[in-house]
Design brief:
It contains no helices and 11 strands. By secondary structure, the chain is mostly beta strands. Strands 2, 4, 5, 6, 9, 10 and 11 form a 7-stranded mixed β-sheet that branches. Strand 7 and strand 8 form a beta hairpin. The chain is globular, with a radius of gyration of 13 Å.
């Protein structure tokens, strides 16, 4: 089992920044990719960004490309999501997830999920 704990959410004004963290513990050695998803009220959960655990390759949704940066610290078993130039439409609960295989863009490929952290961007 892999346990994931997110932190760093909060309330920020439009144009501001936040950094989310996701600390992983447990059987992390089989992890292929770590991803961030988000879910806004009355909307489906959507892919935000992902990073391969071994090589560090990164992938982003078009809506966040150029504003968000995903990174990982393998020594700390932690993944980060640096969010800049935040917009009100970025408001959502952000989830960290880990996957052992499959397409990194689809939530069904992810085996373990954190509890989520709320990000609210005011206009």
């Amino acid at each position: 089992q892999v346990q994931l704990v997110e932190s760093g959410g909060g309330l920020v004004q439009a144009g501001g920044s936040l950094r989310l963290s996701c600390a992983a513990s447990g059987r992390t050695f089989s992890t292929y990719v770590m991803g961030w998803f988000r879910q806004a009220p009355r909307k489906e959960r959507e892919f935000v960004a992902a990073i391969t655990w071994s090589g560090g390759s990164t992938y982003y949704a078009d809506s966040v490309k150029g504003r968000f940066t995903i990174s990982r610290d393998r020594a700390k078993n932690t993944v980060y999501l640096q969010m800049n130039s935040l917009k009100p439409e970025d408001t959502a609960v952000y989830y960290c997830a880990s996957s052992r295989s499959g397409s990194l863009y689809y939530d069904r490929s992810y085996d373990h999920w954190g509890q989520g952290t709320q990000v609210t961007v005011s206009s």
